[in-house]
Amino acid sequence: MSTTAVSTPSRLKLPKWAAPAGVAVLFAVAYLVFRGTATLPHDKEAPQFLAVTDLREWIDDHRNDNPLFLYFLNYIRLFVGWLYGLFQTVLYALGWPGITGVMGALAWLAGGWRIGLAAVAGVSAFGFLGLWQSSVDTLALVAVSVLLSLAIGIPLGVWAGLSGRLRRVITPVLDVMQIMPTFAYLAPLALFFHIGAPAGAIATMIYSIPPAIRITALAVSEVSPTAVEASSSLGATRRQTLFKVYLPLARSTMALAVNQTIMMALSMVVIANLISAPGLGGDIIRGLSRAQVGIMLPAGVAIVIMAVLLDRTMMAIAHREPHTRLGRVDLVAAGVLAVAGVALIPVLPRTWPDSLTVNFVAEVNDAVRWAETSWYDVTTSIKDLMTSALLNPLEALLTSAPWWLVALAVLAVAWRVSGVRPALTALACLLAIALLGVWEHTMQTLTTVVVAVFVTLVAGLLLGVAAARSPRYSAVQRPILDAAQTMPAFVYLLPALALFETTRFTAIFASVIYAVPPVVRLVEDGIKGVPATVVEAATSAGSTSGQLLWKVQLPMARRAILLAANQGIVMTLAMVVVGGLVGAGALGYDVVVGFSQRPDFGMGFVAGIATVLLGVMLDRITQGADRRPSPRKRKST
Fold first, then answer.
1. Which helix (H) or strand (E) is 241 found in, with range?
2. Using alpha carbons only, what angle is made at residue 520 by residues 519 and 523, rounded to the nearest 5 degrees?
3. In angstroms, rounded to a whole number, what is the distance separating the alpha carbons of residues 618 and 566?
4. How far apart are CA 591 and CA 608, in angstroms?
5. How far apart (Å, rounded) are the C-alpha atoms in residues 553 and 532?
């Protein structure tokens, strides 16, 4: 009896790229067939814009007779205004001698004589730049905002650190608050709190409160359980455990929360000038409106000095050992400095003398004009190349494609990259943007964000990899990154405006130099975090330097790189919207026009909401990619 072997035909195995390529071809065909249809062009007189503008008019008319305003919102506004007035009065009463002496003494106590003398020099620089009054107003606004942020944020953070349930509830809210570009806070606050210092302080407080809550919650949740159990076993009450165990052990990290709150507040007080908040923001906005870097530069320098001084002072407090005692010399020197400053108040004028100011507006404007003329060919070539090669084709693609096709493409990409839930969130955001009537301007903003993020990630990866593989280069680059992350966002518009004037590319350039530092840090830390044993194993197996990078370090640093992409997107979106002040157009321009022209308030308000939705969409896609397992792990499972 003979048996015949019957071989079953093996199924045809398609390569991995076949399915994505097929889907891409289908989308390309659909675009060619339906191009130019269902594009949802922008309508400045859309009913929803007019409805929001009418709502503002109604609120302004009933601000003093509606119960919500009369018994609640107006009291909040009056309280914040009173608090700002109190800080302003105290600072003006101290005058420049008192402020210089007291701030120098506090900085000396916090970080030693170097930081103390730096504080004296920095406060004096406000006067030399001719910005004493504006700097004092900014200090008062920052003080009020930070005080309110910490008064609300630290208790909430402690509660969230002790309660996992509250942490799960509050985390999505904080995510949205940190995704929201700064401009998005202004429209609703102008609607409910009018304009002026109180509205600016409340906007700054809301923008700067998330890090206070997040970092405090992290600090409390990471307190050693052993210490808590020991306290409980000794009979301590929950209150005693909180004040004797949790807070002392979380002290250094909570000081970092205070530092980050101050930095966020300094970033926001400039933008808050758009709703008539006082301070240095007025000089920067005026310089932007006139395209004069000479007006902006002194105010930008003053903000950077203020940020660096406050940052160094708080970091010195954060890094100090809990039981470290101040030396007698430091106490005496700081006391003498403070007493001398207060004693000179009746002797010297309260405001900085005009004879001691330096005015270099004309010189800076002349230098900018020289740079524009001398580097015109280079800057124009870069701008034109980027515009013609990336910006214009991508914008034409997004604005000429049907809205439903763009939504389906985003759904497919999000599903592939991050999973079902982020994909549905991204689709819901796009549908909401379509209903709001700002689809065309959103696609233009998305174009700018995509190009800026692409350049940011390329630069961030190159610099981060170089720093991770060369300790000497990392040591040179790290202080530059520290200084760059201290600067408020508006400062980055100065070099961009000086080089490229008011164009769409100006916003992209500013976005890149604003977002690159955190991307570089995250990439460097991710590559350095690859276990040394893995690197040694790959090297001993004969891997070259390039193979080690591409086959080992970058794949194992995937999570850090995806987090870097997420941070780059969020920061770029925030800066691109600010770029509406320097010719970026689209949603940023709509927001600016909404504040400057009362009939267009509804358009600006809706544009702010659309910006938030765009940020949530991009954030959820990249965060979802961060949480998903790598393709190699999916294959092995």
1. helix 238-241
2. 85
3. 8
4. 6
5. 10
Helix and strand element counts for the chain (H, E)? 32, 0
Burial of 358 (0-12, 13-18, 19+ CB in 10 A): exposed
Residues 6+ apart with CB under 8 A from 329: none
Q: What is the pLDDT of residues 61-119, one digit of tens each?
A: 877 787 888 778 888 888 999 999 999 999 988 888 889 888 888 888 888 888 888 88
Query: Which residues are CB-contacts of 113 (< 8 A; sequence separation ≥ 6)?
Result: 330, 333
DSSP line for 208-256 = HHHHHHHHHHHHHHTS-HHHHHHHHHTT--HHHHIIIIIHHHTHHHHHH
Q: Whose CA is closest to 252, among 326, 162, 315?
A: 315
Helix (H) or strand (E) holding 7: none
- Does pTM surpass 0.90? no
Q: Which CB contacts under 8 angstroms, 24+ apart, belong to 42-48?
A: 42/437, 42/438, 42/439, 42/440, 42/441, 43/437, 44/600, 44/603, 46/437, 46/603, 48/436, 48/437, 48/602, 48/606
What tens digit of pLDDT does each residue of 198-243 get?
888 888 888 888 888 888 888 888 787 888 788 878 777 788 788 7
- Tokens 């101040």 belong to which residue? 326
Question: Could you tell me how many residues make up the chain?
Answer: 637
Alpha-carbon distance of 301 to 450, in angstroms, equals 30
Q: Tell me the HSE value of 297 on the side-chain side, using a 13 A CA sphere.
A: 18
Contact between 293 and 309 (Cβ < 8 Å): no
Q: Return the residue matching tokens 């940190």.
A: 178
579, 402, 427: which is closest to 503 by C-alpha?
579
Amino acid sitting at position 296: M
